[in-house]
Amino acid sequence: MRRKVAIIGAGHVGESTAMYLAEKNICDIVLIDIIEDMPKGKALDLAQAGPIRGYDGAVKGSNDFADIAGSDIVVVTSGVPRKPGMSREDLITMNAEIVGSVSDNIKKHCPKAMVLMVANPLDIMTYHCWKKLGTDNKKVFGQAGILDSVRFRTFVGWELGVSPNDVQAMVLGGHGDTMVPLPRYTTVGGIPITELIPPDRVKAISDRTRDGGGEIVKLLKSGSAYYAPAAATVEMVDSILSDRKRLMPCSAYLTGQYGIKDLYIGVPAVLGAKGVEKIIEIKLDDSELASLQKSAKTYKEMLSVLGY
Description:
By secondary structure, this protein is α/β, with parallel strands linked by helices. The chain has two domains: about 5-140, NAD(P)-binding Rossmann-like Domain (Rossmann fold, 3-Layer(aba) Sandwich), CATH 3.40.50.720; about 145-305, L-2-Hydroxyisocaproate Dehydrogenase, Chain A, domain 2 (Alpha-Beta Complex). The chain has helices at about 10-25, 40-55, 90-110, 120-135, 145-160, 200-210, 210-220, 225-240, 285-305, and strands at about 5-10, 25-30, 60, 75, 115, 140, 165-170, 170, 180, 185-190, 190, 245-255, 260-270, 275-280. It has a six-stranded parallel sheet with strand order 3-2-1-4-5-6, with helices on both faces. A three-stranded antiparallel sheet has the order 7-10-11, covered by helices on one side. A three-stranded antiparallel sheet has the order 12-13-14. Strand 12 (about 245-255) and strand 13 form a beta hairpin. Helix 1 (about 10-25) packs parallel to helix 2.
């Protein structure tokens, strides 16, 4: 029997995630949205591309949450997108209501599914969903550090004139203005970028990474990024469905690691068939650890807006 992935929200991020995932050819897909017939049209179009693009998994669109039944993973992309001048934090109360409703439907129709949160503010919504579901925290996680890291990789590749594919990067912390790029753990062909790029340029690249989403929001004028977020999401889904046990930075629940507990925040984690199978505690210097804990404190304060 083929695995099944439900994608909640058929906007740009949801439809792009469905497209990239279909091309992996590793699961059946159901695309859910409340806008009448829209997800059905997008799913039909995507299914008809299959014979050319080389995939044959079922792609279904629906307005009925009952169709997520039997899903192995539910990807939540639904929510209000950021607009120019709006921070991820501004979205808390607006998207908490949407994510809360989605969580109720997940609990009703596929309570055993893992949940991958993509809606912003990412770390807050992941925690909110986990609380609503009342499930194992290892089965609920957020797509954060992978996207931030791939942006860092891209900028480093451009800076050095090398393929970003040869760049490996690590970005921790909240998925927002308080994220923590780690140049010491960012390498090109195994060489730390601190040995290849002057400190002032490393700082500039780190700052651009931190504002990566905001830069795209400003350029688009309406809406936010979707190609890279979708690609990062599919990396996580593939690692779980295929039990690849890949080490990726993502929003995971901490129970004391890095001196942080009862919070979802971006850290290196091993993703496999059981979800977040292991959290890796890398050695941070005092400045890096302080930045990560400051990020955690910021998000802890934000959770109080939702009464946590």
